[in-house]
Amino acid sequence: MKAMIFAAGLGTRLKPFTDKHPKALAEVNGKTLLEHTIKYLQRSGIEDVIVNIHHFADQIEDVLNENSGFGSWVTISDEREEVLETGGGLKKASAYFAGDEPFVVMNVDVLTNLDLGKMIAQHEQTGALATLAVMKRASARQLLFDNQMLLCGWTNTSTGEQRISREVGELLPYAFSGVQVLSPGILDMPFSGKFSMIDVYLHFAKTHDIKGYDHSGNIFIDVGKPESLEKASMLFE
Hints:
Blueprint: E1 2-6, E2 27-28, E3 31-32, H1 33-42, E4 48-53, H2 57-66, E5 73-78, H3 85-92, E6 103-107, E7 110-112, H4 116-126, E8 130-135, E9 141-145, E10 151-156, E11 162-164, E12 172-182, H5 197-204, E13 210-214, E14 220-222, H6 226-235
Parallel strand pairs: 1-4, 1-6, 4-5, 8-13
Antiparallel strand pairs: 2-3, 6-12, 7-14, 8-12, 9-10, 9-12, 10-11
């Protein structure tokens, strides 16, 4: 199985570190977020990864070369000219996932003890087009599911914006954890340029099964701010 790590973002919440470095190279206990993510995937037997780069791209390439990919086969998806967001980034790298095998996609700034193997097994069992790791936690942006954990919509509780793909009686809100298992059919996304994977999921949710995988109770840190790096250092080696 292959995986993609989203590492191209500007990491503005991690300023001033990201004024001179990519967020992927922020450290938790002496290891970069990139190394933590690569090692996390290795623990589920995934050693073939592609990493997209944009902000201080050369630094990421140098670290990967100096450390022999931290033990994995690492391919670079170069977005130096323009950062494409998550959806555009995956579409640019789509040739890497040619074939009929599912694959994992995750953000470089997510640290979790989610059992990825169990999530992959559920994805393969259900035959969903996509399986999204979600939790019951505070977040302004929430994915909306029915009681079978089928994606039905999205909302921003701060602005009141809501996008509905399936009309159901009750909508259950969950926060997205930035980890997803995808089937190759997702690569037939009808978008171009710069766009979000959330747009892709809401589009396909109208006609396909986009499933949520509830891992509430697991450790989860979105390492987007300096204080979250401090918290992560107490929870992850």
